[in-house]
Amino acid sequence: MSEQGRETVVSRARAGLERADAVQQEYKSLSVPVAVIRKFLEDQSTRMAAMIAFWAFFSIFPLFLVLITLLGFLVPDNVKGDVLGHLRSMLPLLDPSSIQGLGGSWWALILGLVTALWSGLAVVRATQTAFNAVWELPYHARPSLPRQIGRSVLVLATVGVGLVASTVVTGFVSSGTDLLHVSWLGRIAGYAIAIVLDIGLFVAAFRILTDREITLRDVLPGAVLSGVLFWIMQTLSSLIISRYLSSAQNTYGTFATVITLLWWFYLQAIVTLLGAQLNVVLKDRLHPRALVGPPETEADHRAYEAYAEERTYHEEERVDTEFPPERRR
User: Fold this and answer.
1) Which residue in 175, 260, 302, 315 is a FRET match for 14, CA 20 to 30 A apart?
2) Biggest alpha carbon distance in the chain?
3) What angle do CA 157, 162, 163 make, to 5 degrees?
4) CA terminus-to-terminus distance, the chain
5) Count of domains observed in the chain
């Protein structure tokens, strides 16, 4: 293709992108998702999601140790096999064949609780840092380490317990087990309870772990988005993990569980941060955003000003941003 032909193709492609940009800026139903995705990328939220997934991965094994130890204390010997089978249907990554009998051990319980608490606090602190970054909270206004730890304990005692309850409810309803003899009406009620519980957990997490004055109304849209997506992932987890884990084991062997867990936690973190980004876009009116050219909309200017102000490390520090007047519209 000649140079003139390439220029023509580029010109037509740019004209088409500009038309698409004008359309998405005109309609809120399009401009809000575009703004959420753009801010998600600009904040490098995938890196924050990876950090959350990293610590979540380390927390799951101590929790399994605590679960198995408690079952050894509480479950009678004649039904231990049945209990493990039902757990396998809800938690595909837990292989009963790898457990040589259930037995209660105090040292295992204490070790599991201590390591689960340590890694759980790290998960919550990473999530709190991500939420503050999503809201572009200046560095000097972020909480100190003691405040982070205190808030993390509160979240683990509330949101963490609720998350376990939601997972158990969804697991019993969606696994098809007959342990509770749940009817179809009971399954629908169980799904509804799980969805409402998931949304409530995200409302609590978004409010508690964000160091900015926000209301229930400010966090509700993102909580609904993240809660519904999280419930869908919970419901499909048995099918997805069972199918892909078995195929991955043929290729990666024992590392298949590690890979599957990391990806699963990463997807959950992505869903969480998408909900947080939606709240910021709606609260701070960061839409519509321009897709081509330099910053052109008022939302572009507000977003870039917030990015600059986030990098202030002292309360007396001031940052001024300027854009050519002809770029505003």
Assistant:
1) 302
2) 81
3) 105
4) 38
5) 2
Q: What six digits make up the tokens of 8?
A: 């023509």
Instruction: List, for residues 146-157, the tens digit of each pLDDT value.
Output: 888 888 888 877
Whole-angstrom distance, CA of residue 239 vs CA of residue 243? 6
Residues comprising the chain, all counted:
329
Please name the amino acid found at residue 252.
Y
Same domain, residue pair 280 and 171: yes
Q: What is the pLDDT of residues 15-25, one digit of tens each?
A: 888 888 889 98
pLDDT tens digits, residue range 123-140? 899 999 999 999 999 998
Residue 34, domain member (yes or no):
no
pTM exceeds 0.70:
yes
Contact of 231 with 195, CB cutoff 8 Å: yes
Alpha-carbon separation of residue 299 from 135, 267, 288 (angstroms) = 15, 28, 6
Tokens of 18: 């500009």
| Cα radius of gyration rounded to whole Å, the chain | 24
Instruction: Judge whether 307 lies within some domain.
Output: yes
H/E stretch holding 44: none
Q: Mark whether 59 and 194 lie in a shared domain.
A: yes
Q: How far apart are CA 106 and CA 118, in angstroms?
A: 18
What is d(CA 310, CA 301) in angstroms, rounded to the nearest whole number? Answer: 14
* Other beta carbons within 10 Å of 21: 19
More confident call, 236 vs 318: 318
Give the per-residue pLDDT at 329.
Answer: 47
Specify whether 218 is located in the same domain as 319: no
Residue ranges making up the domain that contains 241: 43-137+152-284
What gap in Å lies between CA 283 and CA 275, rounded to an integer? 12
